[in-house]
């Protein structure tokens, strides 16, 4: 098979991968369109220009693709994951339906005539096999949450990823050069090396993602355990003081000192507030999504560090399947909103944040405010609604709206006055069902 024809088939492989595996997940629609245009022009120019220009277009595609992924996802690990997945799927699909028949032809087990007859079917089969592999990878990722786990890892491992990417690209082009020079032994050695490198990388990423999820669960359980210990200690102290509290309260009432009795009750309530309020860490157990758990865990820690009183309410079990938009976009929106309200509340003396994540019969609803639920009606009025014409929005809120514009049946509403605010985010449930209110 000539090099131009091989380059066309390789471009078709890349087109499948960037559209069926990478589009809207690793790259935006505009980025995917740009990469597709490069590949299409590459195929068209094969018949018009010499090999150097063909190599230039492939080189341009190889350089732009990782840059686009990093710009879109802000994650070096996910960029490396996609490039290694891409190379693995292409190598394996070519290995069985082209490389193996060519090897059998070289050693004389397949005649030249038979190979020529089978070649069109083998090349079409290679494209189809690659598509099957893409579907399997998407199923595997959906089942084990590999992409979402890696997307939420805080470390970027930039230097390590760059070195691994350079090594991958170098070995891959060296392998193609071996094909061009008909050095079949070098081609086989490089294929084994590349498959080994890909296997080690994928296994490491998979183990790391599972390890990250387990560490996150352990951290949440540890934090909840510490909170429960504090509650038990406080409950024991309260039990010992219970009799004296009742005696003091009865004394106030018998002497008709009602104002002092009321003040005494408030002091007891403040003292036992940690026992009366629901634990934020306990609420996180109702999230069946480790990336969202990790985001809210960081949010809780930020509020504790800055002395912000936080109340989290998650009345129902929330699964990834309830979220109709991409999980990474959901995390971006939620992260921007949480960072915004933490930074805003830090400036005020009365530092309180109320966060609610719940399901209604049709929607997944997020409410973030510095007012308790019973006071939300005070600010949920037309005069407090922020619109583009009324005043410019903070950059975090603008970014949220920009992301949500890519999805239907999503709404975001912002209510503000000088001191108070209310942010509501509504997403249609991915699978609409009747969910009882609690």
Automatic annotation (TrEMBL):
Keyword presence, Zinc: no
Keyword annotations from UniProtKB, A to Z: Kinase, Membrane, Transferase, Transmembrane, Transmembrane helix
Single Gene Ontology MF annotation: kinase activity
Coiled-coil regions, chain positions: none
Keyword Kinase: yes
Transmembrane segments: 5-22, 34-64, 76-98, 118-137, 157-174, 186-208
InterPro entries, alphabetized: HATPase_C_sf
Protein name in the entry: Two-component system, LytTR family, sensor histidine kinase AgrC
